Amino acid sequence: MCASGKYSSRGPALIPRMKTKHRIYYITLFSVVLLGLIATGMFQFWPHSIESTADWSLDRRSVHDAPLVQLPVSNPIPERGDLSCRMHTCFDVYRCGYNPKNRIKVYIYPLQRFVDEGGVPISSTGLSREYNDLLSAISDSEFYTDDVTRACLFVPSIDVLNQNSLRIRETAQALAMLPRWDKGMNHLLFNMLPGGPPDYNTALDVPRDRALLAGGGFSTWTYRQGYDVSIPVYSPLSADVELPERQPGPRRYFILSSQTAIHREYRAELERLKEENGEALLLLDKCSNLSQGVASARKRCYKGQVFDYPLILQESSFCVVLRGARLGQATLSDVLQAGCVPVILADSYILPFSEVLDWKRASVVIPEEKLPEMYTILKSIPHRQVEEMQRQARWFWDAYFSSMKAIGMTTLQIINDRIYPYAARTYEQWNNPPVVKWSSVNSPLFLPLIPPRSPGFTAVVLTYDRIESLFRVITEISKVPSLAKLLVVWNNQNKSPPEDSLWPKIAAPLKVVRTKENKLSNRFFPYDEIETEAVLAIDDDIIMLTSDELQFGYEYFNYLYTYKMPGDIKNWVDAHMNCEDIAINFLVANITGKAPIKVTPRKKFKCPECTAIDGLSLDQTHMVERSECINKFASVFGTMPLKVVEHRADPVLYKDDFPEKLKSFPNIGSL
User: Where is the Glycosyl transferase domain (predicted)?
Assistant: First the structure.
């Protein structure tokens, strides 16, 4: 029954009945208003697709339609570039602000055509297909914003991927004209082919002030660690050739070299290796007998035999990647796509995305001078490890190298992780294929013989309340060139650390972590502040070690000690406040099967200002317990993993009668 029927049965209605034409009018008006509110709400709260539809694709916008901007000769030129720039000195993180998604916002400048006063463009190629793909990927991502006031990072529409196509001075002037340039603060430039003849600098030669550089050929001399991003040199074959993924395992060839522009000395050495090892090594070069119309970039030859490239890469276990005129080579991308383990010989080269990627899981890095020993070195790698590296190499390509989009998104994610470190991706997320489940820690087959120098190490100093000794240790450690960060573990719950103004002033970041319990094992906990592969764990009374000795060697086994130490060894150490150094040696020796390289005499390890009250090792029962713990640990391991060794490895020229300036580590104490 309708409402009007109910009212009519009870008597007169309280509200006068509307005329039919008026009722239709108000219903229509209410509907229009309601639809307007709904539409406004949908526009306001619906995810803004307008932010991801910027006209960057050449299919939607022609470069020729972009406005023309003339550069006066008198326009200012940015400074060369500040090599001391770091995120805390040359980047305004406050511009990024807080947002619930912990995601930076990236603004792309509108496309413009810059010309000089004579009408000559600043670039001979304009906007390349690769840079267009990169900008399109950013504009279609969740990082993008078209609101310049919300932007944390600015990406110019000026294509500097290939320095060969640029006019250096004019390009720098165009950058300085950008409305938000502000000496390059919070600006990101992408460059894959830096430098030019004859020197081929390893970073973009365009003056760029404080701008971040995502570069494809950094060396340790030009790379600003924690600021720049090392990116791969994109291979055009990635878009043109689809290589099916091949299962890891033995291949037809053991080593393959496919580069065509190798220095004659390197090629001569490879030919010698070929003579010594026969069919195990395939040495390819450019083809000189191809039919007209055959693309030479897709072919390689050996003594008249023609091979399809990059398909031939899938037929080898290891593929050589040698430096050319530039450190960064597109060959690396082709090799990874083929699932071939790259053997990289490019001294001082900063590998792509090495800030987050563990390259020892997917490649073999050999010093250029060790090229004659390459075959022997590779033969020493276990078959199972080679298969894991083949699998990891292909996954690196799929995830981070396969397209300009992959390269761009990886770059932005690395910068995002720096700005929002509490929401950053973990080591496992960066390095483990999605199908891999880490239920336990495996044997560290991929530990390098010598830790990489560029990332440096974190010094973890365990202390209680010996302030003077602690400060002396901090001062000495701060002299080590490879120190990246110093972490003080404050193990005293009854006393606060000294005020900030009292701590030694050092170049590296210094952080104090206060523990909840006084445990010796706190020194081996994998703290979030530790961002390097290598860690030096040291007490606050080891004041006799020199910076040369510390620089000479360091390793990283904190995770294994904290989470994978067998039995109750860690609990025993915490209960007895003793033997943590023996426990870590048991663990490392058991995993690696190797003995320590050098142990300095006990008489050298003394703390002049320590007394029996504040020194654990000065208690007479301390040494007795150390014998007990060796027996205890051996029973838990089921064997005695410690090795007897009658060998000591000293630094080069350590005991030779040479001038001190010729010695790499002159200040290492003698036995």
Answer: 555-654
